[in-house]
Here is the input.
Amino acid sequence: MSLITITNLPDIRHFRIYDAAFDPEKRAAVRMTGLLQATSSGYLLVGVPTALARGIYDAMDEPGISFPAAVDGGALRAGIVVMTPEELESLGGAAKITERGKQFSYQLGSLEEAPATNWPGVSVCWHLRIHAPELGKLRRTYGLSTKVEGDNDFSIVVACRKTGVLTSNPTSKSIGSTVQAEQSH
Here is the structure.
């Protein structure tokens, strides 16, 4: 019979490291920055490296997702939406925003799934939540609410699922194999 000695037990530091890795406040501690800019589609956003969004998308394991295209159909310009086209228009346009071209800081938060809104042909989006008090303050200086309407927080869209992607259709592998099997008999 063998006894477990105290030296065979895991080091308490390993538990602390494990706990720290799953603490959202610890993960979000890295401060990043991006330029505030207006897009041709009318959004005011803080630019984010597209490679950041692409890396998260590449690591996801969700059926039927795709890397998002821009709302206007162009290539994705990863960013944190600070003001919608409607909000910018109500303020007199992007030219009225004197902070364009300045750096704003943000911290990464959790990855969350949410229904797509105002995005035709897309049913679900995955957002990387962003902690950015400076952006809320910027919005307030222009008489807007702290957060973009409909959002809980600022975020970066990293993946989407188009409407009907997971539904049965004539090109389904399972339906095609059933039809082929029936035709061969």
Q: What stands out?
A: Strands lie at 32-38, 44-47, 65-66, 79-83, 103-115, 122-131, 154-162.
